[in-house]
Design brief:
The chain has 154 residues and is mainly α. Pfam families: MerR_1 (PF13411). GO terms for molecular function: DNA binding; DNA-binding transcription factor activity.
Length: 154
């Protein structure tokens, strides 16, 4: 599912101007479209990524993808779910280093939940700051549009 599709679905499912809920996000991250093993090309098309990116994520240890008897990558629903999460975190500005730390902690089990929580809270703080900066940029842009006699749409 492409990023644009996920964003469109999230916005369509929210109520008024309310934020998207955790349940809505979970529904967006499901891998229901993966009913049988998929190739690199199929996953790349499904998630709107390059095959190079998928191979890179595997090479650096962000995702583990089983191989067929012939040695080809075979993506299952869990792999697609993990990659979807990774791409959403990258889209929000999370560094590869932080993603690697998160994945490594997750692999160690539940005892690392507090560290993963801290990592996610720090990332959330960075996102909130980015949103504030974007809101300021939007206000400046709106001001300039108004200065030129234009009308800003909501």
């Amino acid at each position: 599912m492409t990023t644009a599709t996920i964003i469109d679905q999230a916005l369509a499912n929210r109520v008024g101007n309310e934020p998207v809920t955790v349940e809505q996000v979970t529904a967006l991250l499901n891998a229901d479209e993966v009913t049988e093993p998929m190739t690199v090309a199929q996953v790349a098309e499904l998630l709107d990524l390059s095959p190079h990116t998928l191979r890179y994520y595997e090479r650096i240890g962000l995702v583990s993808v089983p191989r067929s008897q012939s040695g080809h990558r075979v993506y299952d629903a869990d792999s697609v779910r993990r990659i979807t999460f990774l791409t959403r975190m990258r889209l929000s500005g999370m560094s590869i280093r932080d993603l690697k730390e998160y994945v490594d902690l997750a692999a160690q089990g539940e005892s690392t939940a507090p560290q993963r929580l801290e990592l996610m809270q720090s990332h959330r703080d960075r996102i909130a700051r980015q949103i504030e900066e974007l809101q300021l940029s939007l206000a400046v842009t709106d001001y300039k549009i108004s200065a030129y006699g234009g009308i800003c749409s909501p």
